[in-house]
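Give me the fold.
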Amino acid sequence: MPVSERWAYFDHAAVAPLSLPAARMLADWASEVARNGDANWSEWRKRVGPVRESAAKLLGCQSSEVAFVSNTTSGLSIIAEAFPWQPGDNVVLASGEFPANRNSWRCLIPRGVEVRIVESEPGTDVCEIDKLLAATDARTRIVTVSWVGFITGWRQDLDALAEACHRRGILLCVDAIQGLGVIPLDLSRTPVDFLAADGHKWMLGPEGAGVLFIRQEHLERLRPTGIGPNSIAFSGSYLGDLSDYTFDRADSAVPYRIARPLQSREMWSAARRFEGGTANAGGILALGASLDLLLSFGIDAIWSRLCEVNEQLRRLLESSGFTVRSSALETRRSGIVACEVSDDERKRIQTTARAGGVILNFREGLMRFSPHAYTNDEDLERLRLVLTKSDL
């Protein structure tokens, strides 16, 4: 991680620094396109396939269930727009959700879908399963949650929530951006129905390249949306045979044919049918380079190491006089540790942190830290000096 040469980086929950493999891949791709245009485009395009396999390995799913998206918002929007809603249906979410997992669903209101917002604990991202379920009824089609909240890092129990939703005939959609890449997840065992995450946080990839998971059994239930040339499983002709997608004219004197609806058999029988147009090849390949780096260590090992770092961080904050608001429970903790901070302390730390070589963040009145598995004792010491007003 080249960032460690200059910074003690505690802000992966915002935008992560690129891993060295990702940076090299992005530079190689840019150089290739600058020097050769599309002369070798097909060869680079083939390299996207293994990235899909790496993403599937990270998620514990089939590669056919993975689509590449530009960000979490676009992934959640695909599900929101493609689901076959009927007027009177409803979707349930918590008030503490990040805007990506609120506004995509609010756009459904003009279509007659009720968006039910359950109050999270005041000023937090915490909303217990029982509170979410209490807002559901026979017309609830989807419950949508963040796996990890962006304020305190409170982690939702996806296994328990998915099981409870499915007992009621409700599907579960997950914004996984604050956990995917460092917290183990196996979707072959955890029956989440839909999941989206951008790669620019814990997966150490570039902005603009993320993943969308659609469980295979739901693919045909979703209506086509954002469909383009990359959605179609064609043999290489962009035009095709006109008779393949039009009806015969009823009146030969009319100078047109009538198009028939797009058929499912024309599209990929996989989540990639939602990839539509030209892919962000450079971003996807760079994301793949970071995924392979993470997978080479193993997500279990990364999570174990990150938990050790955050225990050290928690002790440092408490010994420095800060009250930690993030959960220490094994089933609730994440990569985020947030603490209370006074206005005076916030202003001082905002002013001095960068001078001390420390990158951190503030969210909703709390000071938020989000280290990674590569964070070391030197990083924590630099942070201590900033927090305790010691000589920098």
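Residues 20-226+266-295 form a domain with the Aspartate Aminotransferase; domain 2 fold (CATH 3.40.640.10).
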